[in-house]
Amino acid sequence: QVQLVESGGGLVQAGGSLRLSCAAPGSIFSINAMGWYRQAPGKQRELVASITNAGVTDYADSVKGRFTISRGNARNTVYLQMDSLKPEDTTVYYCNAKTTYHTWWGQGTQVTVSS
Question: What is the mean pLDDT of residues 66-72?
């Protein structure tokens, strides 16, 4: 099973920052877009931010102005800079990569923001 590899989660105080990183394996070709989602227990997975190959970004209203998504020089990497974190940002964050025919996911990384 091909999976993306995430890192950078952890525990931070409210108002602090974290930077999530994600790398897709070289076996995934022709990635069109990458993104970050999050899923709280008992809730649906929701989009946090996404970015296309052309650099077009999309953000959830709840993170606009606080989070920034970017792609690495290698087209198979994506980052999420999270500033001004709030306790309600606490949950598991998942990276994904989309091609024309398939979407791949990472295993998730826990972000915990203490008040």
Answer: 96
